[in-house]
Amino acid sequence: MFDGVSYGLLGGLMACGLVLLLVFGTLIHAHFVLACGFALLAFAGLNSLAPADPLAHWAAGALGLWAVFRLQFARLLLRMRHFAPRLDRVAQAVGIALGLTVLYAAFETQLAWTLRAVQALVVAATVVLAAGALIALRGLRWPALLFCGGALLLLAGISATHLSVWSEAGWSPGQLNMAQAAVIAELALLATAVGARLRHVLNSEKALEARTHALMGAMGTDALTGATSRAGFESRCEEWLREGRPFSLMLVDLNGFSRVNDRHGRAGGDAVLAAIAQRLRQQVRADDMVARLGGDEFALLLAGSPARQKLAEMAIRIETAGATPVAFEGRLLAGGELSMGIACHPADGDTLPSLMASAGEALQHCQRQRMGPSYAFAGERTGHAAHG
Questions:
Q1: How high does pLDDT run on average in the chain?
Q2: Which of 342, 340, 344, 338 is nearest to 377 (CA)?
Q3: Residue among 372, 366, 368, 317 at smallest CA distance from 342
Q4: Percent of the chain having pLDDT more than 70?
Q5: Cα–chain-centroid distance for residue 288?
Q6: Superfamily of domain 220-377
Q7: What is the pTM of this model?
Q8: What is the DSSP letter of 164?
Q9: Which residue of 26, 94, 253, 306 pairs with 125 in a disulfide if CB–CB is 3.0 to 4.6 A?
């Protein structure tokens, strides 16, 4: 019964590894799957075959292949090449020795010698890897701790196992139970360590993304869309206000943008935002500015004193451009249904807060009305453009 449970656990761990391999397609998961598979073949053979059986040495070879792929998996898990390059070279040398042992097992039937060699090399590899885990502890805390826990279990199981092939005594089932249980327990901990490593990678990517956004924001650029950041927008607006330059502020909002994220996920929403920003840039002049204020809200700073009719015509062009579908992963996503609120300096405000409030009120009026154009001017109760 113990063997049946053991094989079931190894099969389950192998299936989990296959799922991760199919999802991520990385070498570390391939090594884990192969380690589970060869451990299953090795124990199934050693538990059912007598030492004199012609196929027994093949089971020992499978055990050696488990050791090879376990070693390669652990090297990648612990990032030995990065954290402990010298120990990584030692681990590679042990891996070569294990490979030679497997070749020996394929042509020779000296089962006892093969098992002794595999045991000795597994112990050596475990010690080297554990030392590397201690070095990598600061950078990979949980993967390193979980590996060390699994290594202790494996060493305890190996040291407590006395194989009958080492003596003249006959073969009896169950002799491998301690080592078998230790291997399975270690593989289970290694699977948990893979999960911890994935969390570490995801957290690192999120932190890097946050730092990138912060850096781009400090430089005045929105990292997602390439438009000017809110900080850059406020700086340019304050500069024009100090210089007393006339300009217009147009707030642009995407109506129903949350539906895009709900249907197509964050990546689809990001694609729509980036496309809208690009289309806005195509509608303005070199001296004008397109900024992303946050979420799905954009702002345009338009230099000079264009007539309201010109601003209305620009708003219509922006509305048409925004409605064009966005290509994303072979599909066309609905473009943005835009609403715009327009305020002019100095007529609608002489400070940034007052201009933002005026344009914001016009935007809200535009969004409330069911009929009419997609834009509204500050101070107007209709969305129609005034005469020039």
A1: 84
A2: 342
A3: 366
A4: 87
A5: 37
A6: Reverse transcriptase/Diguanylate cyclase domain (3.30.70.270)
A7: 0.57
A8: G
A9: 94
